[in-house]
Amino acid sequence: MAIYCPNCGQQNDDAATTCVHCGAGWAPGQPFGMPLQGQVMPPPAYAVPRTNPMAIASLVCSILGCCLMLAVAGVVMGHIARKQIRDSGGRETGDGLALAGLIVGYVWVGLLVIYYAVIIGISIMAQHHPR
Asked: Within its chain, how far is the Cα of 79 from the centroid?
């Protein structure tokens, strides 16, 4: 049976009284989480939440979205990033970046659809009404 370190959570041999990974010690039969007599246990390490890279890419693609493909890519990555951030349980941040990427991307898509519709409409009208 393996023993897991109360400090770092790494697996150790069942006869171990110190962790081979972080050096934390415990007495045989001692309840985990209690320091040895005279020993002060360091505070547990907490992971700092990181910004979701897909959220950053979403905003960058959306800002550069004057090309329809980049705007659509920004929207898709924004939706994926928001789902990943929701599912991360607090390990990832960047929901605001992803939301901004979605908004800017949708604005670009809308503007580009209107632009292409006007261009196509003008070219059709020019073919039917030659000068």
From this structure: 11
Task: Report the candidate in 103, 101, 66 with the shortest Cα–Cα distance to residue 81.
Answer: 101
**Assigned token pair, 73:** 């890519």
pTM to 2 decimal places: 0.62
pLDDT tens sequence for the chain (131 residues)? 567 777 777 777 777 778 887 777 776 666 554 445 555 556 666 678 899 999 999 999 999 988 889 999 999 999 999 999 999 988 999 999 999 999 999 999 999 999 999 999 999 999 887 76
How far from chain centre, in Å, is Cα 21? 28
